UniProtKB/TrEMBL annotation:
Pathway: Carbohydrate biosynthesis; dTDP-L-rhamnose biosynthesis. Catalyzes the reduction of dTDP-6-deoxy-L-lyxo-4-hexulose to yield dTDP-L-rhamnose. Residues 1-234 form the RmlD-like substrate binding domain. Keywords: NADP, Oxidoreductase. GO terms for cellular component: cytosol. It comes from the Bacteria. Belongs to the dTDP-4-dehydrorhamnose reductase family. This is dTDP-4-dehydrorhamnose reductase. It catalyses: dTDP-beta-L-rhamnose + NADP(+) = dTDP-4-dehydro-beta-L-rhamnose + NADPH + H(+). GO terms for biological process: dTDP-rhamnose biosynthetic process.
Length: 251
């Protein structure tokens, strides 16, 4: 089973390099080696490698910045994904892709399921939803994992920002009315490898194609998450100071 991984230097891409190496022949490309905004190179790469599976860990993930960088967000999160979907369909390859809880408006009072209607409120969410829609329309063999609040030891994430800020500030204002599931990149990568292994072993047709919500169990607010992180990192001796946390309401 030949696997082409794109975006190998991100939080998830890095873990996928580890997890996918054990289930097949892995060819991994970072942004430097394949910038997905260069559609021609991207298309040719998929044709040349001719993989059984393309795993797309690339994304424009700067949620706030995307509001002023609209074209770039759509380029990476939607238009490049369309090119991947077309090339995979042409090659008969599976396309594995990751999306986000930002496709929803957050108004539902219970956990979202795959059948809930998306209603993204920001550019990041809208561009990611468009990427999903291209895949579902164009590529008959696909798996889209929607996840949330990804963390890892690598790259930028809430966990690392909070721990870094602990030594810099006396108080931190954190939103206490937004909820999500912190999910490790390690878990996402291991589940992906497990699923792809089963697909490869069974030489599956498109029966298993679809959209799946994939995140850790339970839920928390940003405030409760920050509270836990600060106290735990102090207990473990990672941080010495404990800034006071002020809960604020997002409206
Ligand atoms: N992070 C979260 O909290 C979160 C939550 C829900 C869903 N997701 C989804 O989960 C997936 C993985 O996210 P992540 O946390 O691993 O993100 P990440 O750490 O920001 O990694 C994204 C990767 O994409 C690469 N990339 C960006 N633009 C590119 C381009 N034009 N060409 C090639 N590569 C490019 C980046 O390259 P550089 O390393 O050079 O920057 C980076 O390696 C994404 O689909 C994301 O939307 C993430």
């Amino acid at each position: 089973m030949k696997i082409l991984l794109l975006g190998s230097n991100g939080q998830l891409g890095w873990e996928l390099q580890r997890a996918l190496a054990s289930i097949g022949q892995l060819v991994a490309y970072s942004r430097e080696e394949c910038n997905v905004e260069d559609f021609e190179t991207l298309r040719k790469l998929i044709e040349q490698v001719s993989p059984d599976i393309v795993v797309n860990a690339t994304a424009y993930t700067a949620v706030d910045k995307a509001e002023n960088d609209v074209d770039k967000a759509y380029l990476v999160n939607a238009e490049a994904v369309k090119v991947m979907a077309e090339a995979c369909e042409q090659e008969g390859a599976w396309l594995v892709h990751y999306s986000t809880d930002y496709v929803f408006d957050g108004l539902k009072k219970s956990p979202y399921t795959e059948s809930d209607i998306p209603n993204p409120l920001n550019i990041y969410g809208q561009s990611k939803l468009m990427g999903e829609e291209y895949i579902r329309k164009i590529c008959s063999k696909h798996i889209i994992f929607r996840t949330s609040w990804v963390f890892s030891t690598r790259g930028r994430n809430f966990l690392k920002s909070i721990i870094n800020k602990a030594s810099e500030v006396d108080t931190l204002q954190i939103i206490d009315n937004q909820y999500g599931n912190p999910t490790s990149a390690e878990l996402l990568a291991d589940v992906t490898a497990n699923v792809l292994n089963k697909l490869g072993v069974r030489n599956c047709d498109s029966t298993f194609s679809g959209l799946y919500h994939l995140c850790c169990d339970g839920y928390t607010s940003w405030y409760a998450y920050a509270h836990y992180l600060l106290h735990r990192s102090q207990e473990l001796g990672i941080t010495r100071t404990l800034p006071s946390l002020i809960p604020v309401t997002w409206q």
